Amino acid sequence: LGTSLRSSLDTLQGKARLDEDDVEEIVKEIQRSLLSADVDVSLVMELSDSIKTRAVEEEPPGGTTARDHVLKIVYEEMVALVGDSTELPLESQTILLAGLQGSGKTTSAAKMAWWFSKKGLRPAVIQTDTFRPGAYDQAKQMCERAEVEFYGDPDADDPVAIAREGMAATADADIHIVDTAGRHALEDDLIAEIEEIERVVDPDRSLLVLDAAIGQGAKEQARQFETSIGIDGVVITKLDGTAKGGGALTAVNETDSSIAFLGTGETVQDVERFEPSGFISRLLGMGDLKQLSERVERAMAEAQEADEDWDPEQLLEGNFTLKDMQKQMDAMNRMGPLDQVMDMIPGLGGGMMDQLPDDAMDVTQDRMRKFERIMDSMTDEELENPKVVGQSRTERIARGSGTDVETVRQLLEQHSMMERTINQFQGMGEGDMQRMMKK
Ligand code: GDP
Ligand code: MG
């Protein structure tokens, strides 16, 4: 589905203006993606209406293609639909978890505790489920794995008493996460129980835990928990499966809340703070902006760590060496395989990849690896000043790196091409350069 959305966006490539048919076509593809991701029909219709209106009425800003303009509108309207993440100040607080049996509450309790502990806080999980056999052991084990404090009582049968005692026993912790018994359905006695636990622990936030595969059942559940304890946020679990979690948006809408966390696997580290862009990309089946920006950030941080003394301003000084080029290539490599990186850029990546022959990116990567081997075979002096590399050294380097003379020449050419570009930058004013660096 993502692919067909991509292809209808790609048909807009080169068009400066959209007509109503173009918009209709794109909106239809978005509707199809969202409905198959379990987003509620009425939410999808509201979204389509606003996209249509804006796409037809708003002028694309100068220099923007029709395709980018539509992408921007779709993205903005999607952000409005999914909302920001639930506010979670990094300070002492009590969080109560609610949800049906098997939705992932116990797992999420340990995951969230792990997450808070990584933020430097001291969390404790209180397990009040006396209903499901093995609930105590499961929670205890997961908390051990997460290396966080745990309170439970395998012999007690009063969840409200456990909650009260658990809060007292873990009084030194900053974050109290109270796990509750699962419900097969919304039975009255279990609702009464969670209401009492809520009174006893007096949570700062009550989160509804939903399986990503939940469809329209989300509505009734959200309504019930909203009336009984009040819902401040939603946790969507099992996003590592095929389900995209669109049903949870119904719960968000119903409780007028937002999404707090996403569960993406069975281990305690498989948790992400909700962030709109990644979730939107997932819903639409398009590239994952969040993943891309995180990778870029990580790559930049690593490169900075590795080359604390490497100053990009040096480029201004007229010394663009092969070493500088090597560092640039390292930084790119850390972002992952090139084709994956490109594929994560919504629209652009996908569309471009579809048009390239299958092996085009491999060749490029293959060449990058060869370049690296070549540079490893060069001396420091040659890396600092590649102009000293003559014919016989070129041959030696080719042999030493297991490549060929042609590839060594290509590397040297690429370097002088980049050097020329850098030299052009030097002709610019200081202000221009700084602006470019910030981009
Ligand atoms: P609870 O009954 O609401 O406490 O749900 P549990 O935490 O016991 O989870 C039910 C099942 O779902 C367990 O087998 C978990 O391992 C699994 N589970 C929970 N969260 C995730 C997730 O994010 N991904 C995957 N793949 N499995 C999960
Ligand atoms: Mg449980």
UniProtKB/TrEMBL annotation:
Gene Ontology terms describing biological process: SRP-dependent cotranslational protein targeting to membrane
Cytoplasm as UniProt keyword: yes
Family matches, as InterPro entries: AAA+_ATPase (IPR003593), P-loop_NTPase (IPR027417), Signal_recog_part_SRP54_M_sf (IPR036891), Signal_recog_particl_SRP54_hlx (IPR013822), Signal_recog_particle_SRP54_M (IPR004125), SRP/SRP_N (IPR036225), SRP54 (IPR022941), SRP54_GTPase_dom (IPR000897)
Subcellular location: Cytoplasm
Keywords from the named record: Cytoplasm, GTP-binding, Hydrolase, Nucleotide-binding, Ribonucleoprotein, RNA-binding, Signal recognition particle
EC numbers, comma separated: 3.6.5.4
MF terms in GO: 7S RNA binding; GTP binding; GTPase activity
SMART domains: AAA, SRP54, SRP54_N
Record Pfam families: SRP54, SRP54_N, SRP_SPB
GO cellular component: signal recognition particle
Chain residues that bind GTP: 99-106, 179-183, 237-240
Residue span, Signal recognition particle SRP54 helical bundle domain: 1-82
Domain AAA+ ATPase residues, every copy: 91-275
Catalytic activity: GTP + H2O = GDP + phosphate + H(+)
Superkingdom to which the source organism belongs: Archaea
Chief location bin: cytoplasm
All copies of domain SRP54-type proteins GTP-binding, residue ranges: 92-285
Subunit composition and interactions: Part of the signal recognition particle protein translocation system, which is composed of SRP and FtsY. Archaeal SRP consists of a 7S RNA molecule of 300 nucleotides and two protein subunits: SRP54 and SRP19.
Function comment: Involved in targeting and insertion of nascent membrane proteins into the cytoplasmic membrane. Binds to the hydrophobic signal sequence of the ribosome-nascent chain (RNC) as it emerges from the ribosomes. The SRP-RNC complex is then targeted to the cytoplasmic membrane where it interacts with the SRP receptor FtsY.
This protein's domain notes: Composed of three domains: the N-terminal N domain, which is responsible for interactions with the ribosome, the central G domain, which binds GTP, and the C-terminal M domain, which binds the RNA and the signal sequence of the RNC.
Sequence similarity: Belongs to the GTP-binding SRP family. SRP54 subfamily.
Protein name: Signal recognition particle 54 kDa protein
Species of provenance: Halorubrum vacuolatum
Phylogenetic lineage: Archaea, Methanobacteriati, Methanobacteriota, Stenosarchaea group, Halobacteria
Gene coding for it: srp54
